[in-house]
Amino acid sequence: MQRMHRIVAVLGVAALAAAGCAGGEGSDGEGSVIRIAGLMPLTGPTADTYGASMVASIEAAFDDVNAEGGVEVAGERHPIEFRVFDDQCKPEASQSAAQSALDEDYEIFIGPICSGAASAVQPTMARSEAFWAISVAVDGPTQLPNVFRTMPRIGAYTDATVGWLAEHPEFQRIAIITDQNHTGLVAATDGLVEGIEGLGREIVANQQYQSGDTDFRAPVTEVIAADADLYLQRAYPAEAALLLQQTRELGGRMPVMWNAGLTNDNVESLVPDLSLMDGVYQAAPLFSLDTFLADGDPLAEEVAESVGDRAGTYTAQGHDLATIVLAALSRSEDTTPEAVQAAMTDLQASELEGRTLNDYRPFDDGRLFREREVGLQAAVASWEQGTGWVAVPAGPSS
Amino acid sequence: MDVLLQQITNALVLGGAYVLVALGLFLIFSVLDIPNFAHGEMFAAGAYIQFLFSVQIGLPFVVGLILAITITAGLGVVLERLVFRRLQGVGLFPVLIASLALGIVLQQVIALIWGTSPVTVPPPVEGVTALGPVLISNYRLLVVAVVLVAAAGTAWLVYRSAFGKQLRALAQNRPLAELSGVRVARVGTLTFAIGSALAGLAGGLLAAAGPMNPYMGFHPMLVAFVVLVVMGAGGRLSAAVTGGLTVAIVETLTAGYVSNALRLAVVFVALVAFLVWRPEGAIRQASAERARL
């Protein structure tokens, strides 16, 4: 009898412990906390440019939901706890940050948000049973069934550039310089060259450089000597600005196209003389709020207000990413990664109407994702003095 | 031909930056035997001090530059007294590790204060000068002029002044210099201050040459070490100038005529090949006695 009491007591304690582990469900429709891990740079060279704005916009979106009691999953409201693991946008640090989060039993991930980091974490993603929503351009991770991408893949940069070039026959001699540490851009270079040559244009220089380089005068001199009439500078923000300055310094007056997704603030802080920005374009997904605000988008104004001075390079991307994850959670059967994955797969683009800044076009079946990729395009923006980046309307051929 | 001339001018502009960083590193290494891997961060500190005073506080560029030189010199004194002096005689390895660690600490402090986003300092001089077919920005021209003046000033200090005599004595034979009445500790501190001031001058000047970040010191420091290794133990100050410019020419011509992606790789392949051929460096010592400077 005494033994039976002991067994009952142990089972009782175990049951209580299990209930505790489940998150302490409330009695009035309040569910357990949904723990979401972010893999983003909090330190390192890209922390301020990319990490801070991404973290701020995701936190703002989750704060709004938490203020209403949390996200509703199968009739119960679940508060969201978002914790960022610093991946420094570096391969080794990303692997270690991802593993730390997995060791702490996180099952829903947002990030990585840098191509090199995402490629490095891909094997960890493959081994895990977690759900991952990434915001990078590099090909590879979304081949896994548990990884979804909410921004255009790297080919979209190429499509936007080639589409725009098709409408501009005045650019015949094209020069390219690419950051060879940007795995996504490097992988897309052959496709870009093929696309440009397919339009009958000539590639007069196809250069590479290392992240952190500060002197580009030698390649710029080569491009000017080759009489290029468009220079594609595929670089991160600081290097893009420096490339532009040195191009103009050495007498290069040709239009320049970037892929870096620089914001108006980036340009104002990195390019001391804004007259250098005449004839500068960007072909990139619309990461920041700038073009939306220039367009008078009311949602962009709302997001700008909630993020405040933490707005930056990835604010629009971060907002859209968080919104998509929340939409998937709210149609999910429960909070397990398998259920979220299933909900993400079936998510309809119409469910996001008016909630995202970017225009997520539905696939033929109305879904947002096909093969875990969205149907979002990159866009070309031009620099307008006094306004900043303004989206260039896409023509029929783009 | 015009393109070649432009590329050589580009190399002189790049080489100017290397020379300024290499001069300070060379002085500290020659006199004190300290391979100061934190020297690149002193350069970065100079750039951020310039940013603080000329952009954030709004003082004139020249005042910012003077403060960058003075404050980095002071920082050098503090590091020498608190760290490097205490490591004398314990061997090269602990000094090397300590300087690497100090470099990381300085980098993190800069990142903590100013963040990691690139920032810029507007150049005090704008416009571009055409020298025949060659174009060079007026500010870069000014930088090259300052580099020449700084190199000449440092050479005068080392080879013509009374302090320079003590400095050379210390570089050649520390115990003998001490016995001859040279105040070794004082000369050591001043040398560190001058070397750091040169890094501060380089940082303060080049802050206006493009966006800067807390990690900006690594590349010029690496090149400065290449210059030291190539020079060898018998090298004089002029060899640091020639070495800095030579590395820049090799780098630029590789970038212009071979591949920009290979610019540093070619420099390092050349370095290894050179050391295999001449392990003692370009300039041999005249005797068994150390004869640096």
From TrEMBL, chain B:
Subcellular location: Cell membrane
InterPro entries (alphabetical): ABC_transp_permease, BCAA_transport_permease
Membrane-protein topology: Multi-pass membrane protein
Keyword Transcription regulation set for record: no
Top-rank taxon: Bacteria
Main location group: membrane
Alphabetic keyword roster: Amino-acid transport, Cell membrane, Membrane, Transmembrane, Transmembrane helix, Transport
Segments traversing the membrane: 12-32, 52-79, 91-114, 141-163, 184-209, 221-250, 257-277
Entry's family note: Belongs to the binding-protein-dependent transport system permease family. LivHM subfamily.
Record's protein name: Branched-chain amino acid ABC transporter permease
Organism: Pseudonocardia nematodicida
